[in-house]
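Example record used in the benchmark description.
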Amino acid sequence: MNKISLASVITIVALLLGSMSFAMERQQNKKAIVIACFGTTYPSALVSITNIQNEIKKAFPGVEVKLAFTSNIIRNVWHKRQGDKKFFSQHKNIPKEIVYVKGPLATIADLQDEGYRTIIVQPTHIYAGEEYADLESYINGLNAIKTIKPKYRPFKKLVLGRPLLGKPGPRYDYHEDFIPAAKALAPDIELARKNHAALVYMGHGNEFYSTGIYIEFQQALRKMYPDTRIFIGTVEGFPSLDDVVRGLTHSGVKKVVLKPFMIVAGDHANNDMAGDESDSWKMVIKSKGIKVIPVLQGLGENRNIAKIFVQHIKDVAKDNNIEL
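Model output (structure tokens):
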């Protein structure tokens, strides 16, 4: 009897230890998604970011989802606001995660410290420009960490999804990424049609990487919606506002719907695009005798745009054998 009891106890203990070991392994390889946004200081523009976040949470209910802002300037603004009681009395519904937002490196480090060893970083950048290149460098740097014993490496898998309009490379043809993005913009096309207007998008662009992708995407939109005159310009790089204005005047356009081709309708949209200063896009276009209808809505407010980021997460997870 004693022998049977002892054997039973040993069996139970072995099972418990085995289940604990399995649980610890699962705990050490928890999975998370980091949404890496440029960010915004405008409370009204946060809806674009939270909409994307909610779509991703809905698509991956068992996975931790965190926000990170890639812009140092924007993060500093939010950090300075943390003790501003007057600001928060005027803006009561701002998520705590925004107020205490961190950069991608700090966000990834926090998750790793909490036992998340499989992490997908999904940028909300428009294309593979300066911000994306810097983020990719961060991820490559972290993946370059080697330890004497492989089991002590900080990550099992740390991977980066592609931006809205894709990226150059053999795995995914970025021209194919144009198609769902162009389809998602159908409501903007319809708005222009209803107003018998051309559609003008203001993108950000950058000074260090080619911004030719804006022209490529403009052509993809024109091909998909041939009955609507569509123009895309950038704040930095080519095509510029001057290029857009030349196109409008050459085409004899008399009215335009003006929207940001950015994830959020933040500072650039409110000031550079729709501001009342003489050098804003709205005022420059108006000076040519063209009626302007500004629409302050970021791309992130569009649910179908948010779903594209969900798909990009699924793609990078599949490519790296990550089950979500």
